[in-house]
């Protein structure tokens, strides 16, 4: 274990690749990573534990933090795309936080363009 109480990258990889690991252990590590502010790492553990409730909870955090890539990943894990209002909220929050690229990408999700050259 690393000095900060978290796993080294190799230990984390080995744990996530084990076929026999308890859900409780995965959730404990997920919470530790989340508390340490390493949300993307926590998602790895929540995903392996199939902790959909926790993944849904993190979707709100992604919106609050204006994190386009986190919301995209979480929604992919759940197999459910966020609605346009959620993307707009994320875009607005990202803009407030100075995350212009995240804001632009979220707006493109909220208002997808029709492919050019196609007729309705």
Can you put this structure into words, describing what you see?
With 120 residues, the protein is an all-alpha fold. The chain folds into 2 domains: 1-50; 53-111, no CATH class. The chain contains 7 helices and no strands. It has helices spanning 9-17, 23-35, 39-49, 52-64, 68-78, 84-96, 100-110. It is elongated. The mean pLDDT is 92.
Provide keyphrases for this structure.
elongated; 120 residues; 7 helices; mainly alpha; 2 domains
Rg from C-alpha positions?
17 Å
Number of domains: 2
Shape: elongated
SSE sequence, one letter per element: HHHHHHH
For the sheet with most strands, the description reads: none
* N/C terminus separation: 58 Å
Provide the β-strand percentage band: under 5%
Number of strands: 0
Counted by DSSP, the helix tally is 7
The class by helix and strand makeup works out as: mainly alpha
What's this model, at a glance?
The protein contains seven helices and no strands. It has 120 residues and is mainly alpha-helical.
Topology of helices and strands:
Layout: H1 9-17, H2 23-35, H3 39-49, H4 52-64, H5 68-78, H6 84-96, H7 100-110
